[in-house]
Amino acid sequence: MKASSRARASLFVRSQVREAGGSGRVCPDAAIPLAGRDSSNGSGNLQHSLGGIEVCRPESSIEVSQWGISPIGVGHYAQFDQPPSCRSAEGRSPDGSFRERGQSCGCGKILAMMQKSYAGGTLPPLVGGNYGRDWLMRISFSKCCLILVMILGIGSYRYLSQSSFVISGNDAPILYEAPPLKDPVARLQKRIEQGTMQLEYSEPGGYLMSVLKQLSIPVSSQTLVFSKTSFQFQHISPANPRALYFNDAVYVGWVQGGDVMEISAVDPERGAMFYTLDQRLGGKPKFVRRDECLQCHASPRTLGVPGHLVRSVYPDSEGLPLLQAGSFLTDHTSPLRERWGGWYVTGTHGTLRHMGNQWVKDISRSDQLDLEPGANLIRLSDRVNLSRYARQDSDLVALMVLEHQTRLHNLLTRANWETRIALHQQDDMNRILGQPSDQWSDSTRRRIHGHAEELLKYLLFSGEAKLDSPVAGTSGFQEEFPKAGPRDRRGRSLRDLDLKTRLFRYPCSFLIYSEAFDALPTAARDYLYRRLHEVLNGTDQGKDFSGLSVQDRTSIREILLDTKPDLPEYWKRTPASDKSLH
User: Fold this and answer.
1) Residue 446 CB neighbour total at 10 angstroms
2) What is the helix, strand, coil percentage profile of the chain, to 5?
């Protein structure tokens, strides 16, 4: 490649997800392999991280600015210069560790390729199984220097709903750690500091009941997890389970005998924010940011953004997860037989079976659980003493709603971040190439629309695991939850539960009313509304939405028209006449 050609070239990376694990290499002209496969989460879902980065030296030096996760927050920055030889690094794992190893540069296995842009400045379409990874490269040549903004395009969304690379968070435009925060806990802390409210302390829960009241979290949402999967694991066991409470935007964890209460709240633009509240009496209580929680809560399991997860594990008699037996990430697509390992569950579910209320008796057969003794329990008094808890149960329906919304919160944050980053990088690219400010490349369009499409499918319960028997809880949650509304002129609500063959009567998530949904960038929200309209008016009859009957689509559309005031005007027309997208 001649120097004059180099001077006007834009180089892009295409990353390909391989079935085989390990690292890979690339060295045609100049190349940087991004990542290989990391591991399976136990349910067969691929989980990807930046493991196995190998950098092969071209004729001149390469600098790579890499974004990852560190124990102290999102977006830790690492930079390394390439000497006149090859060098290999393990790359950043979700906990921020970075290890190096020397290795020769045999470049027979290609994970990523450098692609030259067209001489006219038009960016070529980017394709590949990897997505959502932002790179800034500076390639220094002997006679010229070209600063390139590298946008990793999205061509395939096959793995999007199952796995993800961790994406940058501390730099513009996300600024995850920068004030001001807009989540409910930050707002509550501001009221405490202003002296307009006080948290009340009472035994045995400490500040628990006051926090639930101030954050409008129903006590009936209580669920109990006895696996040691919290940072207060030393206090957690089948005899002393951790209690979780939640509403549409806040999650509270309370451990009997624990030093702190754990709280996670959803910032509409930035995703999950993590706090602790000291449970000792004395002084003014304060919610303290705990970004070290991101070691687990900003990882491939949370789609690479600060988020939440519900896990099902094979626990031993002390609550320790036997990870050699595997584990499951749980959402509304999970079969009931894979749910709630390490949890207590109260409620009825007919012939259906789940992993809750049990632990492994024979560690040599750690993946074997007898599901019968834990089925259809309506009380836990013969298994655990809950006299010091807010309730005596762990509601099955609350668990089902919890695992639905945790995944959706992650998808909302992912779509928000990806859209903002894509548009931010597109602005940079337009300036570099002298293009109009409103021009989108194919890769930008794929990034925005691809993540919005995955969000749409989950929003409409695509792939939901069907119920073969009716289910019911014990705490009154299923009566209390629908009352939060809103309701249409016929009294229907997206919060109405079905519990006979599926979770909700009208399969469109209630989180469409959330602050996080409303905070989606216009580009993503406009696409979502257009696609949602196409599905509900019957224009899109694709297999992803085949579970929606004509009556489902009509009912959801009518409910939204009455209860979602920001819907575009074309929603009032049927069928849609304007199908133009950006």
Assistant:
1) 22
2) 25, 20, 55
Q: Report the C-alpha gap between 350 and 354 in whole angstroms.
A: 11
Q: Using the predicted structure, report yes or no on whether residue 114 has a pLDDT greater than 50.
A: no
**Range 104-114 burial, b when 16+ CB lie within 10 A, else e:** eeebeebbbbb
User: What b-and-e string marks burial along 37-74, b requiring 16 or more CB atoms within 10 Å of the CB?
Assistant: bbeebbeeebbbbbbbbbbbbbeeebebbbbbbbeebb
Q: What is the pLDDT of residue 126?
A: 27
Burial of 391 (0-12, 13-18, 19+ CB in 10 A): buried
Q: How far is CA 394 from CA 207, 265, 545, in A?
A: 20, 21, 32
- In a 13 Å sphere around the CA of 86, the CA atoms on its Cβ side amount to 19
Dist CA 169 CA 233 (whole Å): 28
The distance from CA 501 to its chain's CA centroid, rounded to whole angstroms, is 26
Question: Which of 248, 475, 250, 504 minimizes the C-alpha distance to 345?
Answer: 475
* Cis peptide bond prior to 521, omega within 30° of 0: no
Exposure of 452 in the CB half-sphere (CA atoms within 13 A): 24
In terms of Cα–Cα distance, which of 110, 152, 148, 106 is closest to 129? Answer: 152
Classify strands 112-116 and 134-140 as parallel, antiparallel or unpaired: unpaired
Quickly tell me which residue has 């749910």 as its tokens.
339
- For the stretch 212-247, pLDDT in tens is 999 999 999 999 999 999 889 999 999 999 999 999
Task: Check residue 166 and give its pLDDT.
Answer: 64
Structure tokens at 430: 């337009």
Non-local CB neighbours of 31 within 8 Å, separated by 6+ positions = 25, 56, 58, 107, 110, 112, 113, 114
Q: List C-alpha distances in Å: 51 to 48, 92, 290.
A: 8, 6, 26
Checking if the pLDDT of 129 tops 90, the result is no
End-to-end CA distance of the chain: 36
Q: Which amino acid is at 105?
A: C
Compute the chain's Rg from CA coordinates: 25
Pure H helices in 384-542? 396-433, 442-459, 477-480, 515-518, 522-536
Distance CA 549, CA 112 (A): 43
